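Suppose a colleague, Dr. K., hands you the sequence of a protein chain of 489 amino acids and asks what its three-dimensional shape might be. Before reaching for any lab equipment, you can write down a predicted structure in token form. Begin with the sequence itself:
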Amino acid sequence: MTRNLIIFICLATLTGCASVSLPPPPPGPPAKSYASLPLINCRNVMDDENYWIPKLGNRDKFLLTYPEIEQLNSSNYARGLLTDVFSNKLWDYKYAEVDRPEEVNPDSGWDQSAAKVYSPGVLGGYTLYTYLKAETERIKRVQRWKSDGRPVPRGVFKQLDANLNLGGIRENNHLSYGITRRRTDVRYYPTDMIITSKRWNVDFDIVQVSSIRAMQTVAVLHASLDEKWVFAVTSYCRGWIKCRDLITGCDPRDLKRFLQPERRLVVTGHVVAAVWEPGTTRTAERLFMGTACPLLKKTEYYYQIGLPAKTRNGRLGYQRVFISRHAEVHEGYLPCRVRNIYQQGFKLLHTPYSWGGKEEQRDCSQLVMDLFATMGLAMPRNSSAQALVGKVRYTFGRKDSVRRRRNKLDSLKYPALLQFPGHVMIYIGRVGAHYYALHDIWSYRESASPEKDKKVIIGKVVVSDLSLGQGSTKGSLLERLTNINLLKP
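The predicted structure, expressed as tokens, is then:
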């Protein structure tokens, strides 16, 4: 046996031994199936609002007049679809569910001999404790996953729970008020960590509550242990917000003056840049569709607006910045005309889907929120609540036929909200035998076998036929429809 042959055999043996002793590589994320555009029964020309607007009988008709919008806004707050952050329901003891909060959080260190003070600006300990624990207990109840596909260790949840600062809760907790500097995320835990309910499902971060636009009022209830986050209530959600994205310690009277200026400039594009000085590109803030800013002055080339800022005496004031006159903005709210609804919706066509509005994008219900915010209509955050806005709507049960659903759609002359559990769409019209909607959708299902579906990812704002998903175990979008909301007071 030659020397080279011996060396070859030894190397082969060592290589084989090494391959056997190595642990198998961790499995990576599963392959995804993506939809190709245009979708079934759609054409490229349908991606233009000018394809749909001429089909309308009276395209300049008001879907909602200004008094009707004010009526709907008031109704949304009165019915609890939205929260007034200045309401006594945030702090009044009569809304507490138990008389002895110490029975719920016995280690809080509350002084039981101290007088119980329940007054405006003070939140009871039980209510605050419930707010902080409600969703976090649900999140850690079962196995969760990190963005790298590994399970979340229990020790991580212990660290996150510690940062909730439950020991800082008192019998009486004084509220403060603030305003958002910029668009920011609202989280169930004071962390940026992505936690998912399924392995590799990083597109759905279950810690994400929502995003919130700039210049939104919040009631600040509590601070995290690391003092980098505050727990706050907004008009449509509650959760943890980064301190750096808020101006806190504001007088409610100053906030109301800031939010009710003599003139407004409303962002009507997906995003608009405000710059520090006219003629420069140095961005002060990025403002997203639906943001309403105090309009201080306008010139031939620029609008001057006010961003929230603290003055030298600690009061809420303006930081003056500039927006180009060519930007997608409107002086005052847009009229809620049928034409404007189409134009605003199609401005967001093909923008990416993002669960809870992460990464400066939108999900299905935030698309609806931002669109109607340009017209001054304050919509709830969740699709199920959006289906309850107003009094004029049609509802469907499992036994309702497709024919009945089509008949109701045929009776619509103008845009309406279409909803089924977990999703909302904007109805835009019928072409031939097909019914179409504009919506922000993550995926739909196709039949892979009589008992199994295949998930097909879209992940953006699209125009689709309501037959999408037909033949799957869940049925088509039309077959799943449970509500048609005409948005009428």
